[in-house]
Structures are given as C-alpha cells and as structure tokens.
Amino acid sequence: MAETAEAVRPAQEEPPLRIINPQQADGTKWAQLRTTLSRHQGDKLLLILTGYPDPDNIASGLAHQFLASEFEIETTLLCFHEVSHQENRALVKRLEINLVLYDETFDLEPYDLYAFVDTQKTDTPISDRLEGKTFVSFVDHHKRLGDVAAEFVDIREDVGSTCAIYAEYLRTQYPHGLNPGETDQVRLATALMHGIRSDTMALLEATRLEFEAAAYLWPCVDQSLLKKIADQSLAPVVMDMIQKALENKQVFDSLLLTDVGFVRSEHRDGIPQVAEFLLRRDGTDTVLVFGIVDGKTVDGSLRTRSDTISPDMFLKKAFGADEYKKSYYGGGNIKNKGGFQIPLGFLAQTADRDALYAMACGVIHERFIEAIGRKE
C-alpha cells in the first residue's frame, strides 16, 4: 500500500547526545506487555487498525510492530479502509509504512495472534474469522466502552494519544534513547511525534505524558520530514466540500449544521476536515457536518469548543442506537470530537439520488433540532 518513498534520513548529520527524561518512565505496563509478548515468541501477529487509518493508530501500530520484533514476532498492519487524508497519505508514503488493505483474498490462516491499537471498537469485518486465534493486546487512550478480553490491556483515558503510551514503553525498553543512526528508529520516532501532534492539536491539548514522550523522541526525529508530512495543502476535493458546506450551512446561535452532499469513500476523511475548518468561523463553538458516503451510509463529524457540549452524549442523544447490533450510531471518545455513521440499508438501493439526499438531510436536521432543544 505504501509507495516508493525518499529515504528517511538520520535525524542529524552528527548524532546528538541521547536524552534521558528527567521523569523516569513507569515501566509497569511495559513489563506486563513484554511478558505477554515473550510467551508468543516467533508467532505471527495481525495488528488491526479499525476505521480510517489516522496518524495516532498508524504510528502506534508501527511502534507495536517494532517492539514485537524484539521477540521475533512478525507483525502485519491490517486496515479495512484506504488512507484518504492527505497528511496520512504523506505519513505512509514518506515513512514507507507497509499497511495492508484487507480484501477477500487475504489469508488469515498463518496468524496466531491479533491485537488492536487506538480504538475501542473490536467489531471488524473479520471478527468471526478471528475465533481460535489469541487476542494478545489492546492499547488505547479513548473512553472505555466495556471489558476487553485480551491478554494485555492498557487503556488510559487521561492521556492525549496512544502514541505517548507506546513512547513510554520505548522509554522503558531503551532508557538511553532511540538511535539516530538507525533508519528504522528515525522513522519510528518521526511517526510517533506526528501521531502525538495530530491527536493533541499540535500539543495544545497534550498531557504530561505527551511532553515526556516528545522530549524522549526529539533527538531521533527527522525534523524536515516531519514538517513535510504535517505541511500538506488541502486537497481540491476537500476545498469543494468546504464550499458546499458553506452554501448549505444552518446557524443556530453558536451551533452550525451543514452537509457536503454525496461523498466517495476515499474522500470520507474530508468530512472531519470541513468540520474543523468551519469551527474557525467567528461566533461558532460547535459544528456538525455530514455527507452521504458511497450512497450507503450517512457519515458525520462533530467538533466543538463548548464547555457544555459533550460530543459523546450529544451524538448518542441525537441519533440513538442500532437495536440489532446493540451499539450507538455515534459517539465521541475525545472531549472535543465525535462522529457518527448511519447505514441507509434498503433505501440505498433507490435510483432517485435527490430523494435519498432530501430524506437524509431531513432526518439529520430533525434529530439535530431535537438534540439542541429547539422547535422548528
């Protein structure tokens, strides 16, 4: 999936002195994970990235792959959606990260183990095919949704990124720092730094763990490459989506509701980008943007600066739950972000796109109005 990329350069021409954090890493969790991995020496691991791959789960997966290799565990990073966000594509391409996109020809037979990073959702298109394999680990920073039956579990709701958790593991395993002269370690440090920046609004929402991680990773980060990854222009299709969203916007005091019409699945990541862009509108503290993806689902993103709106509670109240799957259509595991996805089911078969669009907009508008306590 990764294209041929420029070589990752060492962080500095002259390797700098390695820095030891003034706050020593708590090695308890890494000791537990190390013990778990050692029991599976030489096995093959399937590390599953759910949803649309983002910097935090891609870099966390890379870190897990790196650490597992210490125990001769061969790890495959498997995803179910194409990388669509321009920064994420740059991350994968420039750091030559090998993500495998699942299709029906993918052979699960050789894998003994599977694991998840940076997610609370373990329901995947291959869940039934994982039976009999060992659920070895689960590492995340989002709000816990329930019990996890993995051999090793590390969920920390009080930190800003999963990458920072993996950086703590690295700080314990390599207390003198990563090696700036090793290309794979420079690649890893650069990916983790980007993942931390991405999930903490460039460290504006970072916790102590993120700052400690950044201090540890810094000597091994390829700064120029990190800048190239982060400094991506908006894709033309996203600019078009922003224009459509501005044309369709409805404003309710400080809340803004809008849609971007029909969206192809490879451009789905444009929806949260539009929401983040519109949140910069003066006088707006909450934005909900949605679109119809591939004519099959209504996907939406919520972004807020409000002290009174919880994305998780708001989206669950607005859109409810799928009674069959016993799960909510939407929610938010981060204090200022949330999303939802509602299948159109049988209605997706209609050839009348205008009618489908009008129906979806009407339902979302009605639910939004009810959730904010307004009347038509």
Q: Which short descriptors sum up this protein?
A:
376 residues, alpha/beta, inorganic pyrophosphatase (n-terminal core), Diaminopimelate Epimerase, Chain A, domain 1, six-stranded mixed sheet, 11 helices
Explain what the structure shows:
With 376 residues, this protein is an alpha/beta fold. It folds into two domains: 28-230, inorganic pyrophosphatase (n-terminal core) (Alpha-Beta Complex); 236-371, Diaminopimelate Epimerase, Chain A, domain 1 (Roll), CATH 3.10.310.30. Helices cover 35% and strands 20% of the residues. It is built from eleven helices and 14 strands. It has helices at residues 28-38, 55-69, 86-94, 162-173, 183-199, 208-217, 223-230, 236-248, 270-278, 311-319, 353-371; strands spanning 44-49, 74-79, 99-101, 113-117, 134-140, 152-155, 250-252, 255-263, 286-293, 297-304, 321-322, 327-328, 330-334, 337-343. The strands form three sheets. It has a six-stranded parallel sheet with strand order 3-2-1-4-5-6, with helices on one face. Strand 1, helix 2 and strand 2 (74-79) form a beta-alpha-beta unit. The radius of gyration is 21 Å and the shape is globular. Residues 13-22 have low confidence and may be disordered.
The N- to C-terminal Cα distance equals 48 Å
Number of distinct helices: 11
Helix content: 25-40%
The CATH architecture category of the largest domain equals Alpha-Beta Complex
Secondary structure layout:
Layout: H1 28-38, E1 44-49, H2 55-69, E2 74-79, H3 86-94, E3 99-101, E4 113-117, E5 134-140, E6 152-155, H4 162-173, H5 183-199, H6 208-217, H7 223-230, H8 236-248, E7 250-252, E8 255-263, H9 270-278, E9 286-293, E10 297-304, H10 311-319, E11 321-322, E12 327-328, E13 330-334, E14 337-343, H11 353-371
Parallel strand pairs: 1-2, 1-4, 2-3, 4-5, 5-6, 8-9
Antiparallel strand pairs: 7-8, 9-10, 10-14, 11-12, 13-14
